[in-house]
Amino acid sequence: MAYEKVLYSLDEGVARISMNDPATRNAGSAQMGEELVDAFNRAGFEARAVLFTGEGKAFNSGANLADAEAMMDDPMRDVGMLLDHYYGPIISKIKEMEQPVVTAVRGAAAGVGCGLAMAGDLIVCGEGGFFLQAFRHVGLVPDGGSSWLLTRAVGRVRAMEMMLLGERLYGRQALEWGLVNRVVPDDEVESAAMELAKALARGPRSLGMIKKIAWAAADTSLEQALVNERLGQRAACRTEDFVEGVTAFAAKRTPEFRGR
After folding, report:
1. Has residue 259 been placed in a domain?
2. Are 114 and 234 contained in the same domain?
3. What pLDDT, in 10s, does the model give residues 88-134?
4. Total structural domains in the chain?
């Protein structure tokens, strides 16, 4: 697929996927959604880690409401169709793919963009970056997985505050609340996120297994988590990277993992 609303590149095992519609601050559209689905599927085949970001001054400013204006005269209108076809599947893909995903947030991560940003396995945010549950301002409800992701990241009370009041949560406070992993100056967001992504790309195959059991643990019992860990450990110890890790440890050298 040829991309217009997305930029895609591969370097040192890291697929860089960037939303590319800076004129709308990367507002979500059908075209962008279709291209993102393709880009993440592609990364699932050829990358060892993913950096997900946006071009220009924003990560993603939410759904492009201009697309909804044509529906205003239809009492049976459904502005959530893009969620079914594109943005829901993208969130699910980020969670389910083996490759760790680092999201890099500059400027607004609003509306569905907030969900896309929070879906990352690691989240790097600029000091001026912010998360905004903008839905209440236009009479809608949270989407993009926000109700689930927010509640598990910051707790029900703080999640409720963000969703009901629709106030901006900037980088430093997002770090204090446990919503992001790193906060850096705005002009260092991309480089800091890429550094993390490349470190993940150099890691062992077991990183994908760690990701799988960590996501599962957010929505399961302790007993099932113990089972998941046991099965994951069996699979991990049968990889070439485990052999390399133990060999390197014994030789007191840095391991050279190959993702196998």
Report:
1. no
2. no
3. 999 999 999 999 999 999 999 999 999 999 999 999 999 999 999 99
4. 2
